[in-house]
Design goal:
The chain is built from 16 helices and 25 strands. The strands form 5 sheets. The protein has a 7-stranded mixed sheet. Strand 16, helix 10 and strand 17 form a beta-alpha-beta unit. Helix 12 crosses helix 14. It folds into 3 domains: about 100 residues, Oxidized Rhodanese, domain 1 (3-Layer(aba) Sandwich), CATH 3.40.250.10; about 90 residues, Oxidized Rhodanese, domain 1 (3-Layer(aba) Sandwich), CATH 3.40.250; about 250 residues, Ribonuclease Z/Hydroxyacylglutathione hydrolase-like (Metallo-beta-lactamase, Chain A, 4-Layer Sandwich). It is of the alpha/beta class. This is MBL fold metallo-hydrolase.
Length: about 475
């Protein structure tokens, strides 16, 4: 820890002067939100200095930016200013607290926010400014976003890169850094909005896209921030849902809007990158829940296996046991024209076999599944996976391919020994929180619904990178 020898106080007069001169500065009001909204220093932003802020936000604040803390009484901001200086930050506190301020006051909330749903519907109109560090940005991002780390936003030359002909939306994992970025931009005379709840909330937006309209209807439900895909198959107003996602309410909204009834719910496998909403959706809708008999679950359901068939409406669903990603992975063939492949076969790649730590054994099963089962389906069969990569472009708004197109994917034209060697040698990062997500989906641990957004943050990482 650094030894602090400087005077940490700043007077009302000096703060007013610094703000008038547009000096690079962050002014944080540490009082309660209610007090802040009633009255606050014009140009300040409300802040909470809790454990999360100390761990995740303080290290991201540039050391060369002056920070002024305001509280009432001053003791609170004094203590935190001392702590910030020990972190190496240039922090001060308003002498004699908020009541000493003699400058302009404002009321209400500061900063403009945009919800994830609002952003999704106006994406093309925005300049997406991601203020995370570059290593975080490289992991996953909203397509089209531009990365300028928070620490660089206090550099006038960097600010010149920000356009003035689009609305700016600042982005970070939870919204805190983005809020600070918005404050920094406003100090430079640049207006912006903060993505409320950050990428965590962005990952929870579900977007329905109708892919097939007749004789059956197929609605692809896209978790746009995560690259997860769920499907609703409707025949004669009776619907089957495959690999449902959170939030459950989106499915019941679609059920009501479209006039169908969800009667059956299937999961292709125990997912490792996102939390299945199958149990909750079954409970809410009264639908029957069907799961793979080849994977161990710690709760009751209807367990199904290879060649099982289910009628709904005027159509039929046939179960294929397609191991390789997991031992119990299933695919579902509908009307012998459509196949829902889970994480075995994607638009751009194949499922990775190493998430259960048996890569070589699972790769042999993966090869057999692909060549002896899925690629034996008619060439015109439409393939609907449960994920897509972040660099894959949709077709008419949806992510799907055909068996014929799948045959041209990398590594599907090479002998089995070479295939196994290549796949096993391809070591990739695991999905974030994957062990806990698997445990939740298996039923080993109880799901806390409020934890879903944080559990699911990050890329899906379920495909083999065959590049």
């Amino acid at each position: 820890m650094k030894q602090i020898s400087k005077n940490l106080t700043i007077s009302s007069e000096q703060l007013s002067q610094d703000m008038a001169q547009q000096k690079p500065m962050l002014v944080f009001d540490l009082r309660s939100l209610e007090q802040f909204e009633q009255s606050h220093v014009d140009g300040s932003v409300h802040a909470v200095c809790d454990a999360q802020a100390k761990e995740k936000i303080l290290p991201k604040i540039p050391e060369n930016v002056k920070i002024v803390l305001i509280s009432e009484p001053e003791e609170i901001s004094k203590e935190i200013a001392q702590m910030m200086n020990e972190f190496g930050l240039d922090a001060y506190y308003l002498k004699e607290g908020f009541s000493s301020w003699k400058g302009n006051l404002s009321t209400g909330k500061t900063g403009k926010h945009i919800t994830a749903e609002e952003l999704e519907s106006t994406l093309d109109e925005k300049f997406l400014l991601d203020v995370r560090d570059s290593d975080e940005f490289s992991e996953y991002r909203i397509p089209g976003s531009v990365n300028i780390p928070l620490k660089d936003l206090f550099n006038p030359k960097i600010l010149e890169k920000i356009p003035h002909d689009k609305e700016i939306v600042t982005i970070c994992p939870h919204g805190s850094r983005a809020m600070i970025a918005g404050f920094a931009l406003s100090r430079a005379g640049i207006s912006s909005q903060t993505l409320a709840g950050g990428l965590t909330n962005w990952n929870q937006v579900l977007k329905p896209v109708t892919v097939v309209s007749e004789p059956i209807q197929i609605i692809q439900v896209q978790k746009i921030g995560k690259g997860c895909l769920s499907h609703i198959v409707v025949s004669n107003d009776e619907a089957v849902v495959i690999d449902p996602l959170y939030p459950v309410e989106r499915y019941t909204e679609l059920e009501k809007q479209n006039g169908f009834k969800i009667t059956k719910i299937f999961d292709t496998h125990q997912h490792a990158d996102h939390v299945s909403s199958a149990r909750d959706l079954a409970e809410v809708t009264g639908a029957k829940l069907y799961l793979s008999q080849y994977e161990g679950y710690d709760f009751d359901a209807n367990f199904v296996g290879d060649a099982d068939q289910f009628a709904f409406g005027n159509t039929n669903l046939r179960v294929l046991h397609t191991p390789g990603h997991t031992p119990g992975s299933l695919s579902f063939v509908v009307d012998e024209k459509y196949v829902f492949t889970g994480d075995i076969l994607f638009v751009e790649s194949i499922g990775r076999p190493d998430l259960r730590d048996n890569a070589e054994e699972f790769t042999e099963e993966l090869y057999a599944t692909l060549h002896k089962k899925l690629l034996q389906l008619p060439h015109y069969t439409l393939v609907f996976p449960t994920h897509h990569g972040q660099d894959i472009s949709p077709v008419d708004g949806a992510f799907y391919s055909t068996i014929q197109q799948s045959k041209n994917l990398p590594w599907l034209d090479i002998p089995k020994p070479e295939f196994i060697q290549k796949v096993v040698a391809k070591t990739l990062p695991r999905p974030m929180n994957y062990r806990k997500i698997i445990a939740v989906n298996k039923g080993e641990i109880e799901l806390v619904l409020t934890e879903v957004p944080d559990l699911e943050i990050g890329p899906n990482r379920c495909a083999v990178d065959a590049s």
